[in-house]
Design a protein that fits this description.
4 helices, 112 residues, single chain, alpha+beta, Arc Repressor Mutant, subunit A
Length: 112
């Protein structure tokens, strides 16, 4: 099941991270910690950082460099208007897929 979960997460992690940023701005390690608190314990920081670079390049987030007590400034990500629009589309797609999967599961269970 772990491989299946990994494959499913690949297609949804972007939306999950954007949803977290819609709640409050955060830097990379904070996002990883929040994901783990939500039960996504197998997600590694490298995956999150690569995703943050992609969503920044696509213009879905605003980035602010904030001084850090240790080391270089942190990049704090927050959802911008384009990111909010993208997240809304993500939820529409998610709800459509979830509904269709539930219908398939219900149909399978009633035929058993």
């Amino acid at each position: 099941m772990a491989k299946q979960m990994t494959e499913m997460l690949k297609g949804t992690l972007e939306g999950i991270v954007l949803a977290l940023l819609a709640e409050q701005p955060a830097y990379g390690y904070e996002i990883t910690s929040r994901l783990r608190e939500q039960g996504f314990v197998d997600i590694v920081e490298g995956t999150v950082y690569a995703l943050l670079i992609r969503i920044e390049q696509r213009g879905l987030v605003a980035v602010e460099k904030v001084p850090s007590e240790k080391g270089p400034p942190r990049k704090v990500y927050s959802l911008n208007a384009q990111g909010r629009d993208y997240l809304e589309e993500f939820w529409v797609s998610w709800n459509f897929l979830a509904d269709k999967l539930t219908q398939l599961q219900t149909k399978k269970e009633s035929n058993s």
